[in-house]
Amino acid sequence: MMSIDNTVLPGAIYDELRASIITQQDAPGSTLTESAVAERFAVARPTARLAIERLVADGLLRREPHHAARVPLLSRDDIVDLFYNRAIVEAEAAAALASSATVPPAAVAANSALRTDPDFARHDIAFHRAIVASQPSLRLSKMHDLLMGEIELCIGQVQSAHLISANDICGQHEAILDAIGAGDAEGASTLMREHIHGARDRLLTHGEDQQW
To answer: What is Dmax (Cα atoms) for the chain?
Structure first.
C-alpha cells in the first residue's frame, strides 16, 4: 500500500508539474489524472486535484467536462493567435518602460541567468514576465497573465526542439533592454515584436516540418 505524504503541499506539486510540462517531460497531448498525479507524488487525491486545477487555470493544462486534464497540443491557429496577442501586450509593455527609461532589474537578472543555464526556458519566461510586470498598468499585466500558460508551453517547445540558442535569445533581450534604457519607446516596441514574431515563425516552421 502506498504511503501518503500529507506534508506535501499542492504548491510544490504545481511547481514540479509546471516544470515538467514546460520542459515537455509531460509532452503535449499527455493526460494527467488525479489518481496518476497522486501516485506520482505519494499524496492524497484532493491534494493532486488542487495542483491540477491551478495548472488548468493557468492554461498549462486543459480539461473538458468529465475528462481528465491534458497538456494542450497547440495548433497552428492557436500559435498564430497567441503570438499576435502576446506581441501587442509585450511590445506595449516595452514601450511603456522606455518612456521613463526604466530597465527592470528582474529582467536583467533573468537574462544573465539565461546565458549560463542550459535549461533556459524558465529564465526566458522570467524575462518576459518581468518586462510586463514592471510597467505601470495593472490591467496590461492581467492580460499578460491570461496568455502566459500557453506562452510558457511555446517557450518550452522552442527549447526542447532546439529552435534557437540561448546566446541568440540573450542578444535579442539585451537589444530590447538597451532600447528601454535609452528611452527609445518605438525601438523597444519594434524589437520586442521582432523577437516574438521570430519565435512564432520558428514554431510554425517546426510544426510544418512535423506535419502538426
So the answer is: 63
Tell me: the pLDDT tens digits for 45-75?
Answer: 999 999 999 999 988 999 988 889 999 889 9
Residue closest to 55 by CA, chosen among 25, 10, 24, 85: 10
Indicate the pLDDT class of residue 1, thresholds 50, 70 and 90.
very low
- The answer to whether the CB of 61 falls within 8 A of the CB of 36 is no
Q: Which candidate, 203, 210, 212, places its Cα nearest to that of 84?
A: 203
Distance CA 134, CA 78 (A): 27
Closest CA to 188 of 113, 93, 81: 93
Identity of the residue numbered 155:
I
Compute the CA torsion angle 11, 15, 18, 24 (nearest 10 deg). Answer: -150
Q: Could you report the per-residue pLDDT of 123-179, keeping only the tens digit for each?
A: 999 999 999 999 999 999 999 999 998 999 999 888 888 899 999 999 999 999 999
From the list 81, 87, 79, the residue with the least C-alpha distance to 192 is 87
Q: What are phi and psi of 182, to 5 degrees?
A: -85, -5
Taking residue 47's Cβ as centre, other Cβ atoms within 10 Å add up to 22
Contact status, residue 148 vs residue 142, Cβ threshold 8 Å: no
**Cα–Cα distance, 59 to 71 (Å, whole number):** 9
**Residue 160 in grid coordinates:** 526542447
